[in-house]
Amino acid sequence: MKKFKLATQLLILFTTVTILSAVVFGLVTYRNYESIYLEVALGQLGNTIDNINKKETITSNDIEDEHLGYIVANFEGDTLLPAMPIISNSIVEIETDTLKEMVVRAYSGFRSYEAEDGTIYYLYIAKRRDIPPSITEYIVGIMNEAKILEFKRASAQNDVMLSFAGTFIAFAIIIVVGNIILALWSREITKRIMFLTRQVSSLGQTGYKKEIVPTGNDEITDLSNQVERMRQEIEQNERTKQEMFQNLSHDFKTPITVIKSYAEAIEDGIADVKDTTIIIEQTKKLEQKVNRLLEYNKLEYIDTTKPLVEIKMKKVINKVLADYRILLKEYKLVVDLDNSVFMGFEENYITIVSNIIDNATRYVKTRIEIILKDERLTIFNDGEPIDEKYVQNLFKPYEKGSEGQFGLGMSIVQKTVNRFGYRLLVKNLNDGVKFIIEPQ
Q: Are 133 and 236 part of one and the same domain?
């Protein structure tokens, strides 16, 4: 299917809607002529009867229209009296009983009467005079439906054609003027979109350093601002990634250098074979760093389509504490756990709790507190408060801390809990640092 430019699509859409509106308007107007003809005919009937009613004496010569006629009828109260002078040849052929029904119907307020043969007669009644002591004389005008057909034959063709012609001329003007206005407007919108497109296309060439400049004050401006925020995030992520690689290289270089130097010393006979314990120790450190890096990378592949399950955090925490029992035995450990349930996967929560406790053991002085209550986990250690300038960067991968250490632990924790609908908070207290995991 051939592609059209946005401006062309708008013009086609506007023209199509306008033409359809003209057709609908014309059809509605045509249908309205039925009621218009009827009102015109009824108006003529009423005017004719009112003019006749003003005369002292009325005769059949007062009505020249073959489709109109009238009856002079007397009512005593609501009762029609028998005598009914009938004027005009147009209604003399109607049976007397039918005429009486028409008169009574007009007296009752109705404007039409349908005869047994399906013919419709239209009615108009006017009071003529009071005849003492209790009789009132009325004049009832009668018009058959042929009168309306006569109106249609006389004027329908011209009226309809003029109506349709006027309608389409008016809508043609709307189409031309509207398309001119829409073309100018869409041209300006298209220029702004193309300008934004060129700016976005150049991002990769400039390394995401060139700022996106918004124009106007509408949804395109909002889009430009969103793209600019995205550019800033990408630029920041690129800087973070570069810093991470630099920090990662530095973090891996130290144990590798130590391993290499001791291995060469042993090979040259300078160092004792017992120094292999140092090599083993550095290897374990290197292994730990590699495992952390793999854990961080695995977070990108958590299956977000897999339904989360209920995890009993008390069981997870006790399992991690069992793994750290030797390391924690030299500190005062306060543990208060309820049966709170978190949503996620057990393997990931073991990693989360392990990383926070590992961080706590690195800085703790004497006491660690682990509190699980009302779906909220807090882990406190009485170490030195974190320098405020590092608090905001604590969750950046391989951010260098106040003691010159690089790590991924807290970044892994934050990224994981966010995937499960929770958040990680860090608060400096007067006597230590508290890590909090709670629902977002």
A: no
